[in-house]
Amino acid sequence: MVHYKLYYFDVRGWAEISRQLFALSKTPYEDIQITHEDWPNHKQEMPFEKMPVLSVDGVMIPQSFAIARYLARQFGYAGKSPLEEAMVDALGDQVKDYFNEAYPYFIASHQQKPAEELEKLKNEVFLPARDLLFRYLENFLKKSKSGYLVDSGLTWIDLFVVDHLGTLCGFEPSTLDGHELVRVIFHNIKKEKYHGVNCVNV
Amino acid sequence: MVHYKLYYFDVRGWAEISRQLFALSKTPYEDIQITHEDWPNHKQEMPFEKMPVLSVDGVMIPQSFAIARYLARQFGYAGKSPLEEAMVDALGDQVKDYFNEAYPYFIASHQQKPAEELEKLKNEVFLPARDLLFRYLENFLKKSKSGYLVDSGLTWIDLFVVDHLGTLCGFEPSTLDGHELVRVIFHNIKKEKYHGVNCVNV
């Protein structure tokens, strides 16, 4: 049997999609959570000096989306045809583009910058990026027959979107107002009945 | 027979890996090059209002790396096992991270900003990002048995790295000095004997 170890910090962050995939597929794995204090002792063990990293019988795979795609393909959550897998990948890269665009706002929030600076970044950087992402997600959801982003059902990109938007809802409960199609993904994932997906308040 | 159409501008850019994959695999496709003047007439036809987009019998796949991965898997250039595919994907996402880090320098160069500003961005942003990427690529190349980034041979990420570094060499011929392992990828790709990969001066 394959021995999986998932290395990350003791937060959800970029490892959470993969933890959800292990939970959904009921696959045993070691969830190795490294503290920030201990991280300098482990950094050189990681191929790109970053986490998450997935060890598959000792082979170290870096990069969160590469890990998620690999696990999703093993467990049946990557899309059910090559074309659908490509569409899930495209959604993944688009979400990454959104994340990179919105990043100056996320980092400023994390660093507790002055309110005026945050408000400016929120209005000029974050909200336009988020609204564009919602528009694209909703276009996919309108066409989908499954209540998830692609026709055949739940994939790793639904898990990422729900985890991230769940975090945003924690800060700003109105995040999903007017976005009922997106909210449907949350409701459908809740029905999957597995451990703690991040949509308690949605 | 599948009917492929690749939509992009009339430049290499983010479509070039996919064009190379069509050339390597000798697969017929329509290379639809849209001018910047005509782009506003086509923007709404694209799922994320950006190009490249690949049409597969009318199904529109956006995002350059999603397209490249899809074609590479169809044509045998994605890695030869699920673990190797994951490693190629991880390299792809790492190269994207490098690209995002170095982007302020690329855009300032493109906008012909003053020399002093460019020099500062080059030294503080671009060179550290590039040197880190070289270090990671060289770690993979040291372990690889094939002269490409993964053991089983040429994949789409080699094509992307060579195309991008080939462009950099056009601006700065010393780019690969001291990076002989990386230069080997260029020499190996030249031996594949297909149309115009971007490494004429390497």
Automatic annotation (TrEMBL), chains A, B:
<dbReference type="Pfam" id="PF14497">
    <property type="entry name" value="GST_C_3"/>
</dbReference>
<feature type="domain" description="GST N-terminal">
    <location>
        <begin position="2"/>
        <end position="79"/>
    </location>
</feature>
<protein>
    <recommendedName>
        <fullName>glutathione transferase</fullName>
        <ecNumber>2.5.1.18</ecNumber>
    </recommendedName>
</protein>
<dbReference type="GO" id="GO:0006749">
    <property type="term" value="P:glutathione metabolic process"/>
</dbReference>
<dbReference type="InterPro" id="IPR036282">
    <property type="entry name" value="Glutathione-S-Trfase_C_sf"/>
</dbReference>
<dbReference type="InterPro" id="IPR050213">
    <property type="entry name" value="GST_superfamily"/>
</dbReference>
<dbReference type="Pfam" id="PF02798">
    <property type="entry name" value="GST_N"/>
</dbReference>
<dbReference type="InterPro" id="IPR036249">
    <property type="entry name" value="Thioredoxin-like_sf"/>
</dbReference>
<comment type="similarity">
    <text>Belongs to the GST superfamily. Sigma family.</text>
</comment>
<dbReference type="InterPro" id="IPR004045">
    <property type="entry name" value="Glutathione_S-Trfase_N"/>
</dbReference>
<dbReference type="InterPro" id="IPR010987">
    <property type="entry name" value="Glutathione-S-Trfase_C-like"/>
</dbReference>
<keyword id="KW-0808">Transferase</keyword>
<feature type="domain" description="GST C-terminal">
    <location>
        <begin position="81"/>
        <end position="191"/>
    </location>
</feature>
<dbReference type="GO" id="GO:0005737">
    <property type="term" value="C:cytoplasm"/>
</dbReference>
<dbReference type="GO" id="GO:0004364">
    <property type="term" value="F:glutathione transferase activity"/>
</dbReference>
<dbReference type="InterPro" id="IPR004046">
    <property type="entry name" value="GST_C"/>
</dbReference>
<dbReference type="InterPro" id="IPR040079">
    <property type="entry name" value="Glutathione_S-Trfase"/>
</dbReference>
